Amino acid sequence: MAAISESGExxxxxxxxxxxxxxxxxxxxxxxxxxxxxKIDPKDSMIHYYxxxxxxxxxxxxxxxxxxxxxxxxxxxxxxxYNNMAALSFNEDGDIKSAIQHLEEALQHDPDDRMKIxxxxxxxxxxxxxxxxxxxxxxxxxxxxxxxxxxxxxxxDDEEEKGEV
Length: 165
Hints:
- This protein is mainly alpha-helical.
- The chain has nine helices and no strands.
- The protein has helices at about 10-25, 25-40, 45-55, 60-75, 80-95, 95-105, 115-130, 135-145, 160.
- The radius of gyration is 19 Å and the shape is elongated.
């Protein structure tokens, strides 16, 4: 149940209004609504997640990380937060290994199919950047599998392993 302020305002209502503005690209305006929601319910993981996203979109990595960390305090099994933290690690710091750790953590928390596809794609790309081609191929296969394409995981069926490329 969403927290209610003394004046009867719902944190959920404020956060949903902010979410609608953010989805329309109006992050500055959305921040007002998210902050009000956060004052009403300062421990709500979704509000912290939305604040983190808005700050990330505005280029404020420090505040984005703060709110993602707060979201994880209440809900440590939040794959979307780990995915966004991976994006910050890579895009802001160029830290591929931390990004990979965050993405692998996201997979540990039963992400939905849409999130799995995004995480597998990112992991395949990051491992390619590290020239870790076995992991790149593994996550590329997991991506194809998540999209709905059958993947034959038998050892030795890969054309490159047979030297037939």
